[in-house]
Here is the input.
Amino acid sequence: MNNGRIMIAGGGAAGYFAAIACAEANPEAHVTLFELTAQPLAKVRISGGGRCNVTTAFTEPADLVRYYPRGGRELRGAFHRWGPVETVRWFSAHGVELKAQADGRMFPVTDDSGPVVACLQRAAAEARVIVRTRCGVRTVRPGFALELTTGETVACDRLLIATGGGKAGGGLELARQLGHTIAPPVPSLFTFQIEDPRLTGLAGLSAEHAEVRVPEMKLRESGPLLITHWGLSGPAILKLSAWGARLLHDRDYHFDLMVNWVAPRGIDEILAELVRLRTEHPRRHMGGGNSFGLSQRLWERLASAAGAEPAQPWTSVSNEVLKALAGELGCGKFPVSGKSLFKEEFVTCGGVRLEEVDFKTMESRRSPGLYFAGEVLDIDGLTGGFNFQSAWTTGWLAGRAMAEAL
Ligand SMILES: Cc1cc2nc3c(=O)[nH]c(=O)nc-3n(C[C@H](O)[C@H](O)[C@H](O)COP(=O)(O)OP(=O)(O)OC[C@H]3O[C@@H](n4cnc5c(N)ncnc54)[C@H](O)[C@@H]3O)c2cc1C
Here is the structure.
């Protein structure tokens, strides 16, 4: 028996939060955290463009779980035990005040991730967590015997794997060595590459109320849509990429995207509005007739794509062209030929299968004494502080459970 010896693989948000929760709850616990790289909490530091979107102002678990394409069902009970309210309170008690933006995202009042990183490191040090950097866990045998990247072998009776998403670092392999199955990791939260003359030269323009669909996969999202140098981005696309992460990966990111630039209006309503414009303003240039709130350049581009001349008067626009324009506005087809990185935030869909973990304690159902927290699990959220929140929640639950199990 290695009394009280608890080891944590991974010095990210989840690993740190678990280490602190464990050591604060039970002074008998000897907690050692192993971080593969020289810099723990690297993602916390760069997150939210350096501002760190720590959590969300949406606090009701039943609402909150709707922002998780994977893991929502399992997290519901967990959020009742440790959710955004507890997170905000914890950071405040440890010296970091958070503020909510109108869109629900919560940041440090200083708009700087530095104090969040410093707070976690200070809390870990005060709770006597031993942090070893440049020291990863290479292999693990049941029981647990760990081989470190330094060549050492160490033993513990409780092990938390919090190595983050994806294959880098080998955390998923550790889980596999202890009998777990893995949902194959694929990217989530990305933007779409589209080469289409309708978008050329319009980078930076956005439509505030768009709807995007991939009919063959029954995917549909709405929200702001942004034209980029490479294609389309913005909240509507990011949400679609998250909910469709696996399906889109299986199609090698080649599919047709249908865009409604003026949602929630449907084709009939759009056509009726175009007819009204033609009837009421017969002599006006149709290029000046954008009553849909679209950016003028985008309106003119879509009008040209429908076969109209922006300089022509409304009265000369044929029914056929009106119908084509309604189609461009409400149901434009854009062939997607790949994905691009959304540099502000990206996560992994896939990881340790959730049915193999008890979400009351985050303990493995396959290997007693083994715990999981954070993105190594098959959990990922939309942008907005949801990914860190699941790391804090699962980290806290695992840390507390390890402390109580001693
Ligand atoms: C650019 C960017 C910005 C983001 N911004 C936000 C944001 O503002 N808000 C939000 O909610 N989410 C954000 N996210 C997502 C969020 O950062 C992650 O979901 C979160 O960091 C997951 O925490 P984690 O502790 O599970 O994993 P990580 O933060 O990835 O930490 C895992 C750690 O384990 C280490 N490790 C890996 N393998 C081993 C091993 N074998 N042994 C020891 N250590 C190992 C890694 O080096 C790493 O330090 C962002 C992501 C990115 C990429």
Observations:
- The mean pLDDT is 96.
- Residues 190-341 form one domain.
- The chain has 13 helices and 22 strands.
